[in-house]
Write a structure and sequence with these properties.
Elements lengths: L14 H39 L3 H7 L3 H9 L6
């Protein structure tokens, strides 16, 4: 279930104005939903990096990672060769 739900309220406006308002609301809703999805993705990544940061060097090595890789993951520059 989405955290944002759109409610359609019956408001009577002049039809061209109503179409403009509806289009604006649709764009605003889409933008807000996109921002929420991006925020959730960043939060999930931060939680996963925090979990990996608690691993010791041997556990990270078992995963094929190093402490430096965690810094790169956090900054978004990590690439698997």
């Amino acid at each position: 279930m989405s955290l944002i739900q759109r409610a359609d309220y019956p408001v009577r406006l002049h039809p061209p104005l109503q179409a403009t308002v509806n289009a604006w609301l649709d764009r605003a809703y889409a933008r807000l939903a996109g921002l929420l999805a991006a925020w959730q993705a960043r939060r999930t990544l931060a939680q996963e990096i925090a979990t990996l940061a608690r691993f010791d060097t041997r556990e990270l090595h078992d995963l094929g990672l190093t402490q430096t890789d965690l810094v790169a993951l956090k900054s978004g520059t990590w690439r698997r060769d």
